[in-house]
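Design review, sub-item: ligand-bound model
Attendees: FS, YL, KQ
YL presented the inputs for the zinc ion complex:
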Amino acid sequence: MAIRTVVWGENVHEHKNRIVAGVYPQGMHQTIADALNQDDAIEATTATLQEPEHGLPKERLARTDVLLWWGHAAHGDVQDEVVERVAEAVWGGMGLLVLHSGHFSKIFKRLMGAPCNLTWREAGEKERLWVTSRNHPIAAGLPDHFELEQEEMYGEPFGVPEPLETVFVSWFQGGEVFRSGLTYKRGAGSVFYFRPGHETYPTYHDANVQLVLRNAVKWAYNPAPRQADPTKAPNVPVEAALEPIQERGPKLHHAGEEGYR
Ligand code: ZN
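KQ shared the predicted structure:
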């Protein structure tokens, strides 16, 4: 069975800015989904902010293997309930790819537990991405470096926790550098942050970028069944201990009582 993938798009700039609408007439999310669907191993559909529950009701997330997230102007409009639902899906084993300005999305900040801030400049600079982890599956089939003729600059320091792996580092024409491909594990879920993707440039039409996204979907896919309740914290009563023990000393909790959250 193909990897069930949902590309979530904020879908705001495409309707408000003529340049963005020209570069992505069907929306950035659709362009990304089309690029993913070039691979028979992936079956990508889209969801947007404007749909009920932002297109991510519980049942749909339950049958999503990998979710991609592009947001920018409307991070604050994403319902907290949906953010928490996505976080639980990741903790339960769903893969998550956070793209470009998604670094400031509620879901990314929730999962990173950090400010996720960076420096930036919108000046159409050249970006050169270097592969820093040559044998990483996300870099499969790529040259040692590739360039995007025009991109927004994101610079260090990037306010994220130290990643598991750094797959790409970017250099920009103005001199800044940035860790542009980072992997994380959150609960049972694999998370990949990928930097390029400013809305006014044709980044998601680029063959190397599309290959990174297809590779990343396959990398983030977790074939194990989703953990049903990844935040549960059950009490183990004395009589259920693996070795016989005698209860002793003072205690605060009563038998069968829920723990504090
Ligand atoms: Zn941008």
